[in-house]
Input
Amino acid sequence: MALKERPKPFLLPEYCKGCGRCLDACAKDCITLSDQINPLTGLMPVELDLTNCNACGLCMDACPEPYGLRPAHEGEVQDFELEDPAKLFGVKPSEAIEPFDIPCEVLSLPRTEPLVIKGTYASALGALLAGCRHVYGYPITPSTEGAELMAKFLPKLDGTFIQAVSEVAAVNMMYGTAGAGLPTMTFTSSPGFSLMLEGVSYMIGAELPGVFVDVMRGGPGLGNIAPEQSDIKLACHGLGHGNTQAITLAPSTPQEMLDLTILAFELSFKYRNPVVILGDGYLGQMTGKVQLPETMTKPGIPKWAVYGDAMHRKNLITSIFLTETDLEAHNVHLNAKYAAMQVEARSESYLCEDAEVVLIACNTPARTAKGAVQELRQQGIKAGLFRPITLWPFPVEDLKEAIRGAERIVVVEASAGQLEDELHLALSKAGVRQFPELESVRRMGGILPQQNEIMAQVLGKKEVRA
Amino acid sequence: MSKASVFYDKFERHSHAEGLKGHATHYCPGCGHGLAHKFLAEAIDELGIQDRTVAISPVGCSVFLYYYFDVGNSQAAHGRASVVALGHKFANPDSVVISYQGDGDLASIGLAETIATAQLGAPITVIFINNAIYGMTGGQMAPTTLMGQTSSTSPSGRNQYNGQPMKMAELIAGLDGPIYVERVALYDAKQRIKAKKAIQKALKLQVEGRGYSFIEVLAECPTHLKMTPEENEKWVKECMEPVYPLGVKKDVTVDPWFKRNPPSFQGEKILSLAGATYEHPVRNCQGFPTQLALNDISLKLAGSGGDGAQTAAMLIARAAINEGFDATHIPSYGPESRGGTSYADIHVAEEEVLNPGSPDPQVLIAFNAPSLAKFGPTVRKGGYVIYDSSVVTEPPVLDPSIKLFPVPFTGIATDLGKAVVKNIVALGALQAATGIFPKETFLTAIRVALKDKCALIPLNEEAFAWGIKSVEAIRG
Output
């Protein structure tokens, strides 16, 4: 039987680290350790004497280096004189074409009657209409209904819902799916969002889109399941470690839970960055009127997505940049993106044009504050409401306009001043030094500020002045 | 063996391929990673799956797996590689996803993800490199460090206070999710052949859509185990292997099952799931029920779990929205799953609900005595209190301006044969007592809600009618 001649091994000493794994693999003792230090590597490569070599190949199997012991081919001889090993094999440029975007398709929907649904349901429907078919989550009150709806609907749409072992796992499943360039989201509530922050930092670092609906509840710790606005600081300034920022949206009605979820997906892909939706416990649980849009999205595949085909193999999803200058450049890039996101600032001003008293609130407290504005107006007090819809970036230009004529500013919130801190920071950064001292109506622990409390604050001060 | 084509021709990602780094790994001499990489690359090559392969790099020395493998590459947070792998697998079910992890990553910080992913059983391949030490952070104790073995965080040897070594292959094999679990080693030619075969088999099972596979590789870390590569090979054989016996731990034959259709983007399908309707419901109201409030009515329904307060609240909100008004409903529950408190705050507004909470409602429907006692005193002057007189025998004294309607919700519902319709009796009573909406508005909402349970409609209609009759009887 004619055997095809097997190749003997060949070794470039520069690619040998001298581990010696090949030594005991060789039955013919062709390989020996050396005490000669290779000047290029500072290591001591093995020495080959192939006089007795029978080309069994076991030494090559034992070599851990991809470019270490390899079959000798024609022209490669043992006394090879190396000039520049880095250039030896050259670069085989990938023949694949550069990755390109497969764009999203916008499909039209027939007009339907308003639905009567919970805020979390509205958000879930928004996600489906935005093209999201991959949802990962861990049940936590008061956001669970979103996950439950997804668990029910997604299998019928050949989508994926996985109940993860924890929020940590959920966010990392999102990391994987987002890495493949597909829209993905989760529903969570404050303690769960805390757990997800590690993954959020990685997603921001690796520039991955994803939507986080955090239905905020009372904290700190286990707190309770009633509504609070206790994660504003976390979303605006604490998205895990590193220089992280994400657009943070604050809906105030079930309708906005739907509208802003759709917007969140759009922004998330536009900037390759997570987007946070902060709802409060009321919004998550509250049933209200929701009008569906007349279009929906079928997602495409962005050019940066990771797949195994030759074109997409050029991509890499990672957040590690070992060289300091590389990481600094990456941070500069991320910060340029954060700067670009400033144009996404959104707000609603209600009767602020002539307002002497401007209430500032978001989420459900903004509805209550609107009620207070109406009641104050009935009593002849020129009141207005400024409602930030994005908490980050804070709509400071709109705010400046809204408080132009304000003699008093009252911040209404269900937290210990987290919204007020955003206001201070935004005004300070915008160079606004002159504004009325901020007054506040605050509740915590799962209690939202009530209209009569806002009235008392506004009227009480008035009386004191008189 | 020649270099597998799955390795890059030049390691551009390794320090920009400067000098020797273009063709040399960053692993120390004698490290087990290089061989495991090589066997993995050869298996991908031989199965012809490079175009479908996505590798997840972990945290640890192999964080830079993506320097070398010319496949789809994603780098995960410490311990999370297996769930990142799942995210890729479900995004792209045709892909072959490999989660390559070390002992700190897989068996310590990522233990929850590791076990949950294994138990989920979706076809991914996990390559677990166990070298009994932390490499990248510099020689600290690993979950797999042997008893008595010294490390920088077990300087006098691992003892009982550090716990026992984690036998991951046995642990994973004990789960129902995985289909193939094997532990292999790299210390001699025979073991290397087995290791390569195991890795190839694990990938093949994934390619065939059969399930989750797990290969534990006993590997050398001469640098941090403070041995020569040769000594380390011997140590793996003589010290590690008795604790971590080699061999197949689980191998079950499973028919291919992982087949995923592409997701659907049919709008009608989503609208139908959402329960969307296309026709305007008939409006019966002449205008906003201003007999109750100018433009915003506040109601509270209170009972215990199972009373149906939330369903009744939903029906009121649905009825209001059908009439073109705005409405909100906020449920709140006690911590109990059954039998605890269950309250609903409802608002009906002519244009927009601004205060969805009902701390001082105009209308209270109370399903039991504690609810009536708690919320009765919060009802506004001139308001309405409707309560279940079957269970509340001694109502509290309320403001004389409040109109009281004792209606035996439970009694009527029980007489009708189904206690669960007591909330519908309550709705009938609400309609008759307050005239908030015409009867037909409630009945339409009830019929729509029961469209999938049509047989129950007559019973509910009857319950509603009895609620009305009871109020009429009270009024005389």
